[in-house]
Amino acid sequence: MKFRHAQEEPNPQDEALRRGLGLSRRQLLAATTGIAAAAVAVPALPGRAAATETPLIRDSKRGIILYTVRDAISRDPRTTNLPSGFRQVFEALSKIGFERVEFAGYTQHAASEGGANLETVEGARLLRSWLDDNGLRAEGNHGFIPSSWPLSQSDLDRFKRTLEIANILGLDHMGTGSDPTNSAYKADWDVAAEKWNKLGEIARAAGYTKLYTHNHDAAYNFLLDSGPLDAQGRPTRSSGIRRLEYFLQITDPKYVYLELDIYWAHVAQYKFKTYTAPDGSVQTKIFDPLAVVKPNERRFPLFHAKDGKLNPANGNGYDMVPFGTGDIDYARFFGSLESQHHYPMYEQDNAPGGTANPAQSLQFAELSYKNLSDLRA
Fold this sequence. Notes:
TIM Barrel; single chain; isomerase activity; Xyl_isomerase-like_sf; Sugar phosphate isomerase/epimerase; TAT_signal
């Protein structure tokens, strides 16, 4: 079919087709252009499936945790022409294409608009107005989760204030950047689960459905849950279950959710390969992050999309790099999930370039956004 410029006379056959389908001329042009493009698509090579053109992560799901650009948020606007403070950083992230952000605290440089501390009702309203102005939505935060248990009144009051601020910001998820406990012992994970179940119930009653814990590599080490006991009466061996797997089993899925940091999960895969079984034998068990996520997809509303380049000289096995420039198989990871209900938040702990390259974190954010966008199965 020959396509014409808008000023050319319509082809009678095209007009008949358009009227028969009830389409406008623009709709017909769009439809027939798509057909023509499909007709000339390059066939897959023998023995290789055709790559999908559908992004693995939709644009409305692509996010960034603001910890990645903390240097920009905290720099003095009086000494630089680079984006500084929440408002200008929101503008920069929106121009890159991000639609979601995750907070890592509510402080900025004191000279930035709004002042240093925006963890107040008034500050949250200001932040919300800047988010709305730039077409951004806050999906989560790494904020206050009480450490005491049972809850002290002061911790409960502060937790409720945190919920109030989250409500103003429009957060669908509220969480923390720490593991539920740093302990290796089953008894401590039992206490952590009891606390998180209660906090999740409080959050849900306040209008939230997803209170989440963000996890690092230690949470995927093996749980010490078997004898013999040490001098303090604590178990010294493992049944082979990992700490966070146990936490998932004993927490209420209505109240407790998780944010998988995919980088740290791969660090755990590299570091924690063996455990001492109850009979004293050393067992090998390789960790697969997908084996934890896939049976519990609805409990992982957020991910940290942090990339790593293999480096055996690093004790973690990987060096952090911009998303899409490392060796973690993100196409496999996201392509194995059944839904796109998750929000992958780009994170890179070492993105700030310091005085040598003060623009680096936003440059890495732009590169990483492009690679998130280009990710295909």
